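Data availability (excerpt). The following record was deposited with the supplementary files.
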Amino acid sequence: MNKLASPALDDAGGFRQLVEAVIFETNPDNLSRRIQDAQDAVMDQIEASFGTASQFERQSMINAMNSLRELRRLVQTPESQSNVRYFTDT
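Predicted structure:
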């Protein structure tokens, strides 16, 4: 299985880049892996900044995790497979 390239996660913006990669992914074969990578990065950032994150940063991470969870739910729902349209469709 090919591992998708991920940006370095040593900075706080790393999880944001992975969330953006999920949003802009056009290949349905890569979507589940990108969602998992982004969720892992968000959780890593939550753990790394547990005591130091501002309220805004905490809310940003919670929002990202909730959005990824909902995307995963949509991707895994069988009936959604026929309804999901990608930006490359015309």
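Summary of structural features: Residues 14-77 form one domain.
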